[in-house]
Amino acid sequence: MFPTLNIPGLGVFKIKYKRMNDDNPEEYDEWLEHYKATIIGADKEEVGRVMWRSVNRLLIYRGGLQDELEMSEYGGMELEHIGRKLFDKNGDFLHEDHGTFNAELNLSNFAVIAGDPCHSSGENMYIKPGYRGHGLGSWLLSQIYDHSSFEDISFAFVWPTVLDSEIQSCEQTEERQSSYCRVLKFFQKNGFRKVDQSSGILGYAIYWDDHVSRMLPMESDKVDHLIDPASQAERQNANAMAALARAFGQY
């Protein structure tokens, strides 16, 4: 039975799920599950999506978590980033002194909501512009936690970037940063809180109502200092290209 939502003036929407592993079942790591949920409108138009990867830590040697996340062919750059920024070489959480998330992350299975920081694969959570502002994104997030793929998942992480893939050039930094801040606020509104002070990763304790992060008011979880990761990546690439141009210009 597909989850459905009736929005007066817009119609009835339903969510369709797909297990991405099924496309290449022999190529996925045994600890990795990859899913996509799509919002379908009354005219069968796809109006929104979210993708996620779930990590079963019971199937990973504890000291090998970073290596597995980094080397996985279908894990994506987000798993690699999370492996480096949140966990040490032993698979333990790095930021217990932050206070919001602590040692409970050392052994917990987790899911990563796709934020697609470089817009390379169209995986970022997305709602078509004409359908925004009606709660579809929040509804979609709330529904996927009831999907069977979250049965043994305690936490969800996201490393978000802008929803509008057309905001891509370095010249649009201010516009992009403004869009990025709106995306951060969206995830905060849906219970996510900073996992640390600088990585840009947000976390959500799915079933743990009295978790510290669930008790922290949104306005107390400051995110204004964070910078859109896609902007950072493009600036780094632009600086590298400029440095190469200067170097070759000397010869």
TrEMBL record:
Residues 115-193 form the N-acetyltransferase domain. InterPro entries: Acyl_CoA_acyltransferase, GNAT_dom. It holds the Pfam family Acetyltransf_7. It comes from the Eukaryota. GO terms for molecular function: acyltransferase activity, transferring groups other than amino-acyl groups. CDD domains: NAT_SF. SUPFAM superfamilies: Acyl-CoA N-acyltransferases (Nat). This is N-acetyltransferase domain-containing protein. It comes from Botryobasidium botryosum (strain FD-172 SS1).
